[in-house]
Structures are given as C-alpha cells and as structure tokens.
Structures
1.
Amino acid sequence: MRISKDNCSQHVPRAVPALLCVGLILPSLLTHNVLFATSLTDPGKRAEALLQQMTLEEKVGQLVLFSGYGTTTGPRNDQDQLEEHIRKGECGNVFNVMSVAQVQKLQKIAIEETHLHIPLLFGYDVIHGYKTIFPICLGETATWNPTLVESSARAAAAEGAAAGLDWTFAPMVDIARDPRWGRISEGAGEDPFLGGVMAKARVRGIQGTNLAAPDTLLACVKHYAAYGAAQSGREYNTVDLSERMLREVYLPPYRAAIEAGALSVMTSFNELNGTPASANRFLLQRVLRDEWGFDGFVVTDYTAINEMVTHGSASDDVDAAQQALNAGVDMDMQSG
C-alpha cells in the first residue's frame, strides 16, 4: 500500500501484533526462527519485541498478502519481484503457492535473508478439497449432515497442511437467494439456520481442536458481508438491504463461524448500502468486534482496496488504503 507515514503510522501497529502472533505460531518452518533462541516463549511478547525493532515499512509489509507461484486468479506476479518484496520485508504473507518445495523456497528467504527472520503465512483457496476433491459446498449442504461436512473439511485441511499451507480462504458462508449469482455453489444456500450449522461444521473441520497441530489450517470466513445479496445476482454488484434483513438473514452464518472459533474474516467486494465492505466500520468494528467479540484478523478479497476507487468511495489508492485501515482491515490481498 502506498500510505503516507503521517496519516498511517498510528493505525499500522493495531493490526501487526495479532498478525505477527499468527505468523509466529503457524508456519511449518517456525522452529528455524532465531527468535526461538530467546527467552521470550509467549508469541504475544515476541510480537511486541519485534515491533520495537521494525520500521514502518516492515510493519506495513506484515499487512501485505501477494500471490505467489501458479496463481489461479487475476494477473500473475513477477516471481523475482515477489522474492525481492519478501527480502525487503514488504510482504509478510503469500497465497497461491502450490507445493512444499515452493513454500520452502519462499520461507527460506523470509527466515534467512530478512532483517527480523519473520516466517511467512501461506494461504490458498481450499474450498471443497485439496488433492481429494469432494462435492461442491452446496452439494455437501444438501446432505443435511454436518458431521459428514466436517469430515470432508478435516480431510481437505490435512492435505493442504501437508502441502505447506497455513491458511485457507474458507468457509464461504454467504446466504444466496438468487440463482443467477454464479458463486452460489460455494455456500450453503438460502437458509440462515442451515447456513450457520454448516459454517460451524466447516470451521471445526478446517481448524480442528488445536491449531498448533500439523494437520490443521486457519479458517477464513468469507465474504463479509452480504456478498450473496448482490442486485440481480450480478457479481461485484451493489447490495441494498435493510438492517433487519441483514441481521436476520445474512449475518447469522458469519456469526456462527466466529462462534465456532474462526480466527480470520475476509471482506466482500460489494458495497453495502453505499459503503464498500472494506471501508465499513459498521460491519468491521461495531458488529464484528464490538458485538461479536471477534479477536482475529480481517483480510480483504482480491484487490478489493483498489476497487473502492471504482465504487466511487475513494479518490485514489492511498485514500482507499487509509479508509480500509481506519475501518478495521488488517491485511490487504493483492492491491499493492
């Protein structure tokens, strides 16, 4: 993000400690981190100690998520440029990396060639299976069997973790009542109660009972919020809902996932009643943190911060980034 130091420095540290804790706990190469040689065994204390040594650019870098090798969505990054971003501490998180060898290559750069040796967090869309492919999420929901759904999510998480991943952008819990919306297949359909049951099952399957276990992934609830209510079923379109409809129909599955222990949330592309989700303090602060007590981190969807300019709510990318940070976003996916 291109953010001025004067306008942004007060906001960056709010998000960084939690993200550093996640980064210090999850990556498989964590034992090689030199910080383990210190007497600071508590991740929170290690994160705070790191903050004292970090430049503003390195703090912002921990809030940056870039696509790696073999990207399956959007434009492909130049790999040499990505590796240089990592070396400079300008990228603390990577997604779309598909093999142990590739994970190890980038993790080795982060741990051995950077100022503070902070491990990378690796994410990927493990939606309904990784190597073993299960039915689409809507099809799984049609079984009315949350135990079975939890089992398939557990198997997918184990396979993803074995490939070096730490984090999956799932479950997708958007309520969808317009079959014209193409992403309806990723969710649990039209009913908020059933959606909540399936959201909890998938979070339990993905995260297991102990995130420190080597066969678990960090869950990410998406797309917050009301992405499935886009007008005319058109992708990225605006959402215009009363607060009653929002709270009674669309929010319950997100809350169910949070109650099940999900520790990350992805903002949606759409605006809600005129305000893009990535700049929406009502959603990100009042509801998510104040009312639901969420204490994990919030990541945007792919280039959602850039798209706030397209929505007309930000004058340029700098303005959009500042709005996102002020609203409660902790990590930017791919906007740069």
2.
Amino acid sequence: MKFLISDTFTGSLAKLTAEEQKQVKTAAFDLQMDPASPGMKFHKVDRARDKDFWSVRVGSDLRLIVHRTNENLLLCYVDHHDDAYAWAERRKLTAHPATGAAQLVEIRETIGENFVHRRAQINGKDARQALFASLPDKELLGYGVPPEWLSDVKNADEDSLLDLAAHLPGEAAEALLELATGGKPRYRSAVAPGKSFEHPDVERRFRLVGSAAELEQALSYPWEKWTVFLHPDQRALVEQAAGGPMRISGSAGTGKTIVALHRAVSLARRYPEARVLLTTFSDVLANALRNQLSRLISDRHEPRLMERIDVRSMDGLGRDLYTARWSSAPRVAAEKDVRSILTEAMREIEGHKFKLPFLMSEWEDVIDAWRLETWEAYRDFRRLGRKTRLSEQQRSLLWQIFERAEKRLAERGLMTSSMFFGCLRDDVAQRRNILYDFIVVDEAQDIGVAQLRFLAALGAHRPDALFFTGDLGQRIFQQPFSW
C-alpha cells in the first residue's frame, strides 16, 4: 500500500498548536509504519459522499481524515472532531475524467455560496460579461475543471472569478486566471486509468512518502537539520535544468523554502564564479533565509560559498541598487502622501462621485502596480478582480485625477516602489554587465508586477537564471495577476 500526504493535510496541520502537531505527527508516523495496527482506530465518515473517507482518532478530540483504498492510504486533513468530519463530508477524491489526475474536489451542492452574481442590465444586456460562456465544456475539462463546476465556471464574471477559483483544483484555477487575462494556458496532459497519482499536476498536492527506512532517517534528524533536509522529489527540482524561468508552486508546509535554499546553494556550487541572489518580499523573511542558509552551508569546508550568495529583501535590494546608480536614495512616498495628493487631485476634477478609498485602491492595484502611463493603457486595461465596473467615461475622469497625482509626485520628488523598480528594470536592460548570474525568489506570490519585471530584466532570458517558489493561492499583499 502506498502512503501519501495531501497539501490539505500539511495546511491544516500548520493551524494546530505545537502540542497538537506533535500528537498528529506521532499518529501519522505510526500509520505509515503499520496502517493495520490494532492501535489505529479507524472510523468510517458515514455522511461523506466518498465512502473511502475514514477518521483516525488522535487524542480525545483531534481526528485525522484519511482516504483509504486497497492501493493507497492518503492523509487528507486534520482538525478537531466536528470540523474534521465536516471537511470530509464536503469533498471527494476522484480521477478527473479528461486528464486522469487525482483531485480532491469540493462537492458543489455542499457549498452555500452562490458564485453567479445577478448581473445588472444595460439596454437589455448584461453589464458584466460571463468570461468563459463561449468556451466548450471539452476545453474547460482539458484545463482540469471538475465536471460539477462547469456551470459555475461558464457563468463566472470578473467579480466572481477569484472567489470561484479558491474552490477549484490548482491547475484549473491557474488556467482560468490565465484565460481571463488574455493568455492561453496549455491543456493538461492525460494519464491512463489507474495512474491518477502519477499525473504531473498531482505532484503539486499529493506527496508520496517512501520506505520505512526513509522515514526513520528523517526522524533521526534534529529539528535544525530537518529544516534543510531534502526529500528525493525535492532534490530533483533543485537539480533540474530549465530552458527558461522555473516556478515551483505548493501550499504551506510542502517545503518550497527548503527547495529555494538548496537551489541557491546548488547553483553556487555548480558554478564556482557565479553570483547568486536569494530574495523574498520582506526583510523579516530575508533574515530567516539567511539564518537557514548558514545552517545549510559549512563555512569551514566552503568558506567562499556564503560570500557568493546575496540574501536580500526585494525592497532593500531595489533601494540599494537605485542609490548606487543615481547617487541618491529614492524618496518613496508614504501612504499619507499618496492620500493627500489624490485628495487634491480629485477636488480639481468635476463631474465624478468617486470616494478616496476607491481612488486609493484603484491607484495601488491598477495604475501604480502596472505603471499605466497613458490614457490608452488605462482605457484598455482588464481590471480583473476589481468589484466596481467602470464605463469609458468614468475611466476618463479617473485618468485625469491620476494624471494630476503623478505630476504632483514628480514635483515633490517622490516615487513609489513600482516607479523606482521600473527605473531599475530599464537601467538593467541596457547594461552589459550581469549583476547576478542566478536569481532565486522565495514567497514569490507576494512579489509585485514591477518587481517581477525587474527580475525578468536581471535574468535576461538566460537558462536557469530565474527560479521562483511560492503559493499563488496565498497572496498577502498583491492583487492576483497572470504571470
């Protein structure tokens, strides 16, 4: 019997207390060693649609939810009794009919939220367009959309898409986002019946745990070593050569940061003269990466390795590069500065009813994030995820406000983070010398558009130059956008 772990299990495990996690891990290891042990108290989840869901008792109230067949034992979820059972009752494990990939699918009838918005009518027509209404079912199935969610997908508009995507398998959600922003996602490959856990998409959510010897080896490591210990599947990603940028997606607890650390070290070892940038979106996370890196590298044996791996936050790196290039640090506008400038600009333009909170969000998520510098660029921009629909006349009034705001920022010598990263991108693109041979980005889901464009310029289309790890479903600061 194969023993597997789902990303939903690791995500739910992370929400428990330290003592609860310890109990759950002990039970999980016991299960892996001997699923048939009399000490394992399996109880069928009677109200679950999927009759292969079972619960395993952990202490007085915690319950492991497992999916058990003759071939596989899959750890799916862990929580306190009622919440664990409720989770199982709302899901099923199934092989997708088109791709063959194993998917934990939310049962549509158990979701109370209605994703189909009532669309306002303008001259008898829908004000909000259903994004995928014209796509045939076969095409949507080819992207990994579960059959029972086809109707919701075909009725999704710009307002409901992001909420809907949170309930879909990762490959389906990413494909729909790509389609909605004008891209063309690739069809998912198909596997033969009975091979549902061997599909490439399955690797993002289910992880095969190997032999008892492998488990014993992992358990023998103290915690400091475990944080930098590589599973064989992770090692394959670390050592993989790519013809261009490479992105590793996974939910919390799947080891993305460990892969990023090992990737940076692997590149530095393979190319003795190379400079490697290891970066993330905040100073706090950069410091954590630096500490983990020091545990991974033995200075005694590799004294120069740490010197060639530059661990920086994106904003810290950007400010230093800007200061070195233009001999003065960028004067970054604080939020209160932008609010003040937008307030002044909105009072100068008549004929609108926009409030300051909306102007701030439109500035931060659209105008400044994407550095839209002309009326035509703003007029034609697809405002995915923005709840307020805008006519061309409304956009025209807004553009007059934002144009004045940009002018006032320039007059006061102020810049936004997106502005100075845009300057850096243009500067790097014109340079002949390479600042970094390789760039590894952790928690890439919180990297902004301007920063991503800057990183693309740093990579300059070199093979293996860009390597990203992150969970695109767990953004903290950024509006979702198509990569």
